[in-house]
UniProtKB/TrEMBL annotation:
Its EC number is 3.1.3.25. It catalyses: a myo-inositol phosphate + H2O = myo-inositol + phosphate. It comes from Saccharopolyspora halophila. It holds the Pfam family Inositol_P. InterPro entries: Inositol_monophosphatase-like, Inositol_monophosphatase_CS. The lineage of its organism: Bacteria, Bacillati, Actinomycetota, Actinomycetes, Pseudonocardiales. PANTHER family: INOSITOL MONOPHOSPHATASE, INOSITOL-1-MONOPHOSPHATASE-RELATED. This is inositol-phosphate phosphatase. SUPFAM superfamilies: Carbohydrate phosphatase.
């Protein structure tokens, strides 16, 4: 497997430390709000898809995140689930040029949050042209804050996390998620391919937590066919720093794939990518040839 080269540009250590500190405090704030309000009279407004709710909590948390980031990192653009791209709290695309950007999903797994199901997260990442520099994911229901910074490793509530060099995939779990319109093309075949290798597939409703389970060693892989940057950026920082492999749809290493991604524990990536590729290839989609006896 090709190894990604280290980014050539040096980042000031003090900046990374400050970004980690600010992101961690925002994650703690969000975790408190989510646990206090989940499933308790929330009134979501449905958007285009019943799988993609918008809630007042999401808007409130994103506004709070933007206010803090505008104070601490003036001029750095913020991309978010609820309000798109803004500069210093102002709507619309700005003219500032920044080496970094922030990407936030205030409630990843909003449908679960609205229903009171204990599986959603707050995700925040600072990125540069090479991918995530700093990432945090708050898992409110398990009272965990996961954090990582480039070349500094991953931590869960302050405890270092590092995946073993090889992972046994048989009997393991692969996470995936629906798209906004339901199952992704080939999803049924992917599940069948995984089952043939005695691996289970789970859809839990939060892309950030799906990737985080790989970073923690709970799942052998996560495959996402459709997502936004803010869905995955924070968790990809965790995965990379824990030692997981991150590939794009073609199977090429990429710190922040734009169109389809695979995150896998060491030793599992080739197997899972093979199931994914076979499930989505044109040959797999074509009908089986008819027998002359039919």
């Amino acid at each position: 497997m090709t190894v990604l080269p280290s980014p050539p540009a040096r980042i000031e250590p003090a900046l990374v430390s400050r970004a980690l500190d600010v992101a961690g405090r925002l994650a703690n704030d969000a975790a408190d709000v989510i646990t206090a309000t989940a499933g308790r009279g929330a009134r979501p407004e449905p958007s285009e898809s019943p799988f993609d709710w918008v809630s007042d909590t999401g808007r409130t948390l994103e506004r709070h995140t933007r206010r803090v980031l505008a104070e601490q990192f003036a001029g750095t653009p913020v991309f978010g689930e609820e309000f798109g791209e803004q500069f210093d709290g102002e709507h619309g695309r700005g003219e500032q040029k920044s080496r970094f950007r922030w990407s936030v999903d205030p409630v990843d797994g909003t449908a679960n949050y609205v229903a009171g199901l204990p599986w959603c997260a707050y995700s925040l990442a600072m990125l540069d042209e090479h991918g995530p520099v700093v990432g945090v994911v708050a898992d409110p229901y398990r009272t965990q804050i996961y954090a990582a910074a480039r070349d500094r490793g991953m931590r869960a509530n302050g405890t270092p996390v590092r995946l073993p060099e090889n992972t046994e995939i048989r009997g393991g779990i692969v996470c995936t998620e629906l798209t906004r319109n339901g199952p992704w093309p080939g999803m049924d075949r992917f599940i069948t391919n995984a089952a043939g290798a005695q691996v289970g597939v789970r859809l839990l409703g939060s892309p950030a937590l799906a990737i985080t389970q790989v970073a923690l060693g709970h799942a052998v892989a996560a495959v996402l066919d459709d997502y936004q940057e803010w869905d995955v950026a924070g968790a990809l920082a965790l995965a990379t720093e824990s030692g997981a492999t991150v590939l794009d749809r073609r199977g090429e290493p990429d710190r922040l794939p734009r169109d389809g991604l695979l995150v896998a524990a060491p030793g599992a990536a080739a197997h899972v990518h093979d199931w994914w590729q076979k499930a989505t290839s044109r040959d797999a989609e074509a009908p089986a040839p008819r027998s002359v006896l039919d």
